[in-house]
Specification:
alpha+beta, Nuclear Transport Factor 2, Chain: A, five-stranded antiparallel sheet, 13 strands, 46% helix, globular, disordered N terminus
Length: 400
């Protein structure tokens, strides 16, 4: 390549990187140029620092980030009105924004600072958390902010509210709603997702304060995998951005009167069986947690696809080729069947949807070696085909 051609490519690359940098700065999602640079690195634009090192560029970008974030603060929805419902909503909106902007004093001003205060939360990765009394909750909140003090205007302001319900009786009120964080433009990001929130508030000196704060968060929808929430009759109640994109292209899903179906009749019957199996577990006062894989053989030596029917916290969802869930299952199955590291890597590639020759190339082995490894895995698991292998591996932890 000539020096002139390389120069042209460098200029083109610089234009792409700088355009993205200013786009991020003007979005109001980042507090300064350093935060923009970190985001660029996460997007694999690792050469961004080369063009952002100039002092005048960083200074101007810092100013743009601050102004954009301030503009978002002024545009917080729900801050007008003087009725009880409006005042309650104002407290909740300010509290959420203050949390993500890492402003403890503003955050604390929204709560009842009393031993009567309670906090109950459930998050998929961490499980259940209970804090009793304001002092305990405040101490942990300060520790959290001190550990991660960087404001996040994106989560502070880029969210939507669904199913809001506020009821006021005298000086007490309760409120329920779904808080949905917009992460469609954060590829691979799996949180914070959609929260189911409940609050009990008390009015003190004319100001509404949260006395009980409860939420559970499944990181629902925060995955590149298409995900649908359905009812027992398969009516689609909610879908994540990846599901909308999936439905817009050529795919194996069809909607009948708003109900979820697979085009292939046999695959759809398997899906119905998985849904029925999970519904049978949904009885009694507490909900059951279970996920059932539906492995669909594409034939013609094509990779099998995996649908999941998931029951969790009273919700019924369907997801497609959810890689983190697939690989988590495979880790446990590999231990159960005593697969070697090489066999584990090979089966991981197949579960991810790779063909055997591509998996062999990724591992740096011949196709013949990969076939031998696969046959040994078949022998250990007791199956003869790749779809049967995937079904057996994913079924090992079916009750988790």
């Amino acid at each position: 390549m000539s020096i002139f051609a390389r120069h042209d490519l460098d200029q083109e690359r610089q234009a792409v990187v700088m355009h993205r940098a200013w786009e991020l700065a003007m979005s109001g999602h980042h507090k300064d140029a350093s935060a923009v640079l970190a985001r660029l690195h996460s997007e694999k634009l690792d050469d961004a620092q080369h063009w952002l090192d100039a002092k005048y560029i960083r200074t101007k970008m810092d100013e743009v980030c601050i102004l954009a974030a301030a503009a978002r603060m002024r545009s917080i929805p729900g801050l007008r009105g003087s009725g009880d419902a409006d005042l309650i909503w104002q407290t909740l909106v300010i509290e959420n924004a203050a949390w993500w902007m890492r402003d403890f004093d503003t955050y604390a001003s929204c709560f009842l600072r009393s031993p009567r205060f309670k906090f109950h939360a459930w998050v998929r990765e961490e499980g259940m958390t209970i804090r009793v009394g304001w002092d305990s909750f405040a101490k942990r909140t300060r520790e959290d902010i001190a550990r991660d003090p960087i404001p996040n205007p994106y989560f502070a302001f880029e969210n939507t509210i669904e199913n809001r319900n506020i009821n006021v009786i005298g000086d007490m009120a309760w409120c329920t709603y779904n808080l949905v964080y917009q992460t469609a433009d954060l590829p691979g990001y799996r949180g914070p997702g959609r929260e189911d929130d409940v609050r009990v508030l008390e009015r003190h000196d004319g100001k509404w304060l949260t006395a009980f704060y409860g939420f559970f968060n499944l990181n629902f929808g925060q995955t590149d995998a298409p995900l649908w929430e359905i009812d027992h009759a398969r009516a689609v109640m909610w879908q994540n951005p990846a599901a909308k994109i999936y439905l817009a292209g050529e795919n194996d899903v069809m909607m009948r009167a708003g109900r979820f179906h697979l085009r292939d009749h046999q695959a759809d019957e398997k899906l119905a069986e998985a849904i029925a199996k999970i519904i049978d577990l949904d009885y009694g006062f507490l909900s059951r947690r279970r996920s059932v894989p539906v492995v669909v053989d594409a034939g013609y030596d094509l990779p099998a696809s995996v649908w999941w029917v998931i029951a969790e916290n009273g919700k019924l969802t369907i997801s497609f080729n959810d890689q983190p869930l697939l690989l988590a299952r495979l880790d446990t199955a590999s231990k159960a069947f005593a697969l070697s590291p090489a066999q584990h890597r090979l089966t991981s590639a197949l579960v991810e949807g790779m063909q055997l020759n591509d998996a062999a190339e990724r591992e740096g082995v011949s196709l013949s070696t990969a076939k031998t490894q696969l046959q040994r895995v078949f022998d250990k698991v007791g199956v003869r085909t790749q779809p049967a292998l995937i079904r057996a591996l994913l079924a090992v932890t079916e009750r988790n």
